Amino acid sequence: MIRKVPLIVILGSTGTGKTKLSLELAERFGGEIISADSMQVYTHLDIATAKATKEEQSRARHHLLDVATPSEPFTVTHFRNAALPIVERLLSKATPPIVVGGTNYYIESLLWDVLVDSEDKQAEGKPIGEHFSQSDLNAMSTQDLHHHLAKIDKGSANRIHPNNRRKIIRAIEVYQGTGQTLTKKLEEQRAQPGGNRLGGPLRYPHIVLLWLRCQQEVLNARLDSRVDGMLAQGLICELRQFHNAHHATTVQAYTSGVLQTIGYKEFVPYLLKYDQQQDEKIEEYLRNHNYKLPSQEELKEDGLPEGLDLLRNCCEELKLVTRRYSKKQLKWINNRFLASKDRQVPDLFELDTSDVAAWPEAVYQRAETIIESYRNDMICEIKPMAKREHPGADLDEETSHFCATCERHFIGEYQWGLHLKSNKHKRRKEGQRKRERDQETKLSADQAKKQKGEGEESQQPPSQVNDTDKEL
Q: The whole model's pTM is what?
């Protein structure tokens, strides 16, 4: 019997155990791991980005780790162009590719034909109007970029949020590089068999999707503990070395590439204020206290190394941002995999990683059963998750709205409808109405007062003029 060789994809929020499962499955099925993490593609910051350790990498071959330097850009297009040949090569020799990572739009670009190249040498069209170089685009304000996009591609201008600088520039680059608007390109892509409003069809016929989930309270505690563990692994030293190597980078650059890494940017305030000498004092304190940061009460004690309070704040910020990011990942998977109307979506299997002690039975063995059943073309005893329809599936998601009351832009009818129903909008709207009523009341009162004054003046008797005045 010829076995199917599936492309195995492990999805899940940060901290759910994706690396652990990928290693176990790679060893079990002889697969190779393809990292789909937008920060782990860069060299350095191994601890901050939670890369697989050297020991873990020795257990299975890994791809797309440390393939870019911090000074060079690496976009989702770079990832797709690098990952596709790896997948094709592995499948051609019946080796299961195991895609793992938390950057979900990287995974999406690999599974579906959703990206549009910004250059096309075969394109017959030529862009009309002014052509901007990369340095020109970088120098323009986001507002000016959006105004320019509206001139050349009104559809994209409606679809892309006015503050989303990266997407605006990309839409302009597509037009300048291909002679066709991004809107036209997307229409062609969606018109393919199997395409929908999110893009083109699936690339591969055999895909197994494994979604690692965890109870939010358990995950939050796990993420907090993970941050504390990073300190013990040498996070401060790693961040200092990286910061010193890139100290000349402008503050604006912290919003792009590896400099926006969760785990680095949160510590920039500390890194800018203190030096390596202070790091060593804090490191000594942490070693003596089993790498446990002091509480707010303990920070009031005398003799603590300077900067410890700021470092603690940075760690707390990292925990907060990491928890928020995990929820964002969860929402993305729900919307793009389970609730996408008319989209070709492979079966998605849920694995609960909340109980670490139950991992062998609840996670690994279930994943093994799912993959074995697929490879042998057998009915799996474990059922995939039920698909559901997104409440905004039939609404126009490529239109822009501006709420003058809240001074915010919204893309799509669904988000616009949610905003209009939100308590925040209703409170602001009621506040606006109250201010208008108060203003009208004040104007009416002022008008009445003015009219009353004029009436009193008209009723006064004419001033009497004495004889002396007449003679004068």
A: 0.81
